[in-house]
Structures are given as C-alpha cells and as structure tokens.
What does this fold into?
Amino acid sequence: MKTARGIHLLWICLTLFSCVEGLGQQASLPTGERCGLGIVMEKYFRQHPEYKSEFEKRQQAFQARYETMLRQKAAAPALLQRANAIMTIPVVVHIVLPDPSIVTDDQVQSEIDVLNADYAGLNADSTNIPPAFKGVFGKSQIRFCLAEHDPTGESSNGIVRVSSGTVSVAGQNDPVKSSSSGGSDAWNISKYLNIWVCDMQGGLLGYCFLPQTPGLPDAEVGVVNNYTAFGTIGTAQAPYDKGRTTTHEIGHYFNLIHIWGASGCDASCSDSDGVADTPNQNACTFGAPAFPLTDVCNTVAPGIMFMNYMDYSDDGVMCLFTQGQVDRMETALTTLPDRTPLLSSDGCTPAIVYNIDASAKSVSEPGKNVIICGNTIVPKVVIKNSGSTVLSSVKLNVSVDGQAPISTDLNINLAPFAEMTVSSNPVTSSGGSHTMKVYTSLPNGIADQNAANDTTNSVFSISDIKLTPITEDFETISFPANFWSNGNNSSNAAFNWKRVSNARHSGTASAKIDNYNLNVPGGYADLRTPQLQVPLGIDSMKMTFWLAAALYDNNTSDTLEVLISNDCGQTYSSAYKKWGQALNTHGNGLFVTSDYIPISSEWRQDTVDLTPFALGRSGNFIVTFRDINNYGNNIYIDDVNVRTRTLPARLKSSGYLISPNPFTSQFIIQNFPSAGNLKSIAIYNSVGQIVWYRTYSLGTADNYIPVYLGNVAAGIYNVHMIYKDKVVNDRIVKMN
It folds into this structure.
C-alpha cells in the first residue's frame, strides 16, 4: 500500500485498530474475521490508556528507521549484507487442549516447514504469483527451528503439551498462556518465539500483539493459533489447512499489519500498512477469488494483492510477502529491543546432557489458591533426573521466607530424564502469606553438574484463627492485613482485591476489585477472612458490609458472591450473590463508562445471615468475598462486621420478651424463634382503653417490634398479644 510520511503517521495516530470501534467490552467478531490483532490491541489500550501515546511514538520511530533503511539499501545494497545472513528463530509450541496429543509432532513439524518455505520465498505455490506482482516478490532471511533445549538447558523437542479444557480469550491475561489457569507458561521471550496452539473463543484463527507494546508482560508475548488452522495435516481443516494462519500471525510478531492498513475490514483507500509495494486496498479479502480482483482503490488490473499473507484469503490462495514487507520484518528483528535478543539465542543448539543433574520442576502442594488451616505443611515437589545416570539419592531443601532450609534426604531410583513427585519433611510456619523456595542438592552424594535447574518457588497462605465478632475496615496499610488473604484462578497478578484510598465508606480506605481495567472473563478473585471461631452459647451470627458498585452497560455485569467454607476451602456454600442492577449502587438504570470511583451517597450496607453456617457446626469457618469478572466496572467493600448475638434466657424460654421494663418512651417486643404466628398486639391502660394497636398478616410480623408510647401518662399498661396458636398477656410500667 503506497505511503508517505504524513500518511503513515495518520494510520498510527488516527485509525489504529478502529476495526473494533463500537464493539463494546464483549466484542463480537466481524463476519469472517480471521485475525484478532485489532481486537486485542483495542482491548489493551482500553485497559491501559496511559500506554497508547508511548506505543504510537514507538511505531512512528520504527517507521522512520524502516524508511531510512530502505534508502540506505537502495543507495548501497552491499552495505546491508550480513556476514551470516540467515536468522534462525527458536520456536516452542505450547499445545493446550483436552487431548493435546491430537496435534502430533509431525503436524507441528509441518507448520515449521511451511514457515521456512513461506519466509524464504521457497513455497511451491509461489508459481501462482501473477506476473504483475512477481517483481515485488520478497524472500526473507528469517528461518525457524523447534527449540532443542528449554530455558533451563534441558533437552527438548520444542513442544509442550498440556491436557486442559482452557480456551483462549484473545487479549491480555489469555488463560492459555499461564499454567495457573490451565494453560502453559511462556518460555524466555528473549530466546524463543512462543506459539500457543489451542481452541480459540469467538471463531478466531489466531492473534498476536504487535512489538513494542508498552507494559505488555513477557508472559503475553507470542502467537496464539487455533488448532484447526495450524500445520497441514492432522487437526488442520480446510480452507485453513496450509499453515498460512501462523505465517500471517508471525508477520504481526515482526511488526507487519494487515495489507489494507490498520483499520478494519471496512478500510478506506487512504489507510496504510506502512509498506510502499503493497497496492492500496479498501477491504479485507475472503475465500479464493480469481485474478485480477479490483476494488474502488484499484479499479483496473492487476487490482489488489489478495494472495498476500497479510490478507484474509483462504490458505490455498496466499503465496507471498512483498520485498517491502520482508524489509520491514527484518528491520523489526534487527532493531527492535523486544525482538533483537532472538538473534543471539542458542535455542536451536542441542542441549548439553550432564551425567549428574537433578532438577526441581515445580511445587504441586500446597497449590496457589489453597487455604491452609494449621501451621504445619508437607510440601510435595516434582523432581526430575535430567542427567544420563540413574538418580539414587538427592537432598530436597525447603526454605520459607528466607529462613534456614528444612532438608530431606531422599533415597530413590529415578531413571534418566524421568520425573517423580516426592514429599519433604514437615515445615512449620505462622498465619499469613509466605514464599517458599525449594531446591535440590547433592544428587548421588556429589555436586550437581548443572545448578541452573535446581530451584523452584511457590507462594502459599496459612489462615489464622480469630474469635468472633470481628471487624475489618481496611485501614491497615499492608493488604491483606489481620490474616485476611487473597486468592484467584488467574495468572494475572493484578487480578486481586487491593486496598485503595480514593474511595471509602468511612475512614481512609476500602478494598477494591478493578473490573474496569481487567479483562478476565469467568475468572474470580477472592478476599478471604481468617478462620472464624464461633463462641459457645450464641444464638445467631450476621455479617454486614458496605458496598459500592456500578455497571458499565447492560451486557457486562460482574458478580459479587459471599461464600462460606466449613472445611478450610475444600467446599463452599453460597450465602449471598448479586449482579446487575441488584448489585448496582450508582443508580438504577445508570451506567459508568469510565473508571468508577463512588461518592459518599453511593455506598449501601448489605447483610448476610451466617447463622446457618456457624451454629451447630464443628470446627471453624471462612468467609470469602468472590468477584466473578465479566469486564464490567469496579466493586468496593468497606467496614466488614461479623457479629454474634446471644438471646436472653427468658426470651428463649417464654418465646417473647418485653424490654426495657420499666420504660420511659419506647420498649421492644421480641419474639423467638420467630413472630410468624403473631396476629395482633394491643396495649391497654389501667381503665381498659387501647393506647396502641397493630394487626399482622401471618408471617409478616418482625421478630423485633418497637412500641412508642412517649405521649401517654406514666403508669401500668397491659400488653395483649394474639398468636395463631396462643394468647399472651403481660404488664409493663411506664416511668416519667
């Protein structure tokens, strides 16, 4: 697409990712959309508007660098020749599927073969390039290999398989990119190109964030590919069974955008892809059109370049990058700081296999979201014999919060390259959150020949026991405090309740979950009390808390649930669950499309009856505030109060209680266990006149009935109460 400096600034600053404008938070895909580039970038800058300006500056600087390189190349091509022209990129393929074996090693290799042919310009179907476009056919020096070793130096075939039903949700915090949410963690992005092959939500075939995206975590960098559009055999399905989806997405990885420009499929002829030798194009292309294909931007032959890898044509139609696109990708690889480290990666070099090499792979227990009740834990660790000699013994060391390690001498029989789960000696710690370091030492009684893979880390929390009643106002600077704890099912460290000082019901702070900026659909974040101990002899328990919440729109409603566990988090019962207008405190039918901060009038006190979960149960219980994310808006809680109540013995024995007696202006009639059978109450003076009277339909009377008699004379009054099954008479004295 023809471009000048003024135009390339325009596409970056004004039209970037407008293909999703107006789609809202739960964007539906345009008809036939193959690639999620526009969707994920729009989502990201909505979540992080502070990064958009920096991104635009970086892209402008890159475009200038690219155009300078083109001029230098035109003036003196020999000056740009590299001594080692071929640039090989190590690739790791993470297959995340319920049965990851359905994507075979051969299928993975078929995709690598396609990539190497397509980027080298050696694809057999390049003979299909129309003569009018053969002059701009580009052949890149970029090549790909499956990684020969993993980040710890251990031998690998470059394929990781995870058996999981986790589905890709295109955008930041994609669960397929994290082991904690059922996916697979990225390998070191400075050494490997990570490709996740999985089932993708919404019908997408793939997506990739562009380079130089500010603030994007390393764990998010790489390509996501639908398993039905990967490779040329096995699960690949026509018309996307020639491996060109991955070719396309890696083009984005090296800073190519779609051939029609940065806007959506409804582009205009003024849009630009920043590459001079791609013809103008006003829309994306689908299917298998015949050459020539013209549009409003190119009304005569040769028309548009629908066979370009950066269009949306069927795989069997795609067959070329232009030289301008090749130059742009190679400029990205050789100049961009988040891509250049790949050039010095040794990921394609076979691993060094040591004779004696014991590694700590991971901590299987305690898990990330597990609540530990009790001060003693028995860590379980997955170890591997990464050496070529049978591992007969090893020392397992566990250190909590940097303290002296607890060591366990293990006598085992572990074959070369095999794994096993082992248990350490018990570790004792106190209530609260802790970091655990686990490492192996002295395999077979001698020094480990490869220390790089000896250590793994984990985080766990121990729940302390607190006697009720308790209060929590979130005023303590550290958070969570007072033995409360966080938990979630997401890899995103930001998806947790946090203490904030810009909103509160009272005091200076409250607890907030940031649903506005965090897109973790279906993910949950927990804020948990310590273990609560119920005092003996109480009759009821209630929890009150102050809440502030707003809706973004009618389609994106988050949920707040209060869960009770009587077995240390193994199972939960729901005691409270609200969403939509029932949760909203901002105003019925009102929406907030900005980052919601409540004003003082928007706080509401809600009550949860804990009595069924606390009384008559053995052991302690835990209360959990759970936010279930649907990319709506923020929720705040403050001034949590768990209180108990013990009823007077007379109330429990008689079924009612009148107090205070004597009274001055008001007294209370309490009923136990309920006032469901109460039909009427009449108060008579000493001469039989009624001074106060109420009737009730069965089941409507409150257990706590105030009676105001401030306007009557002092003296003795008769209380006459009629129930469905009895009549009660009593006396009360009024004092001046």
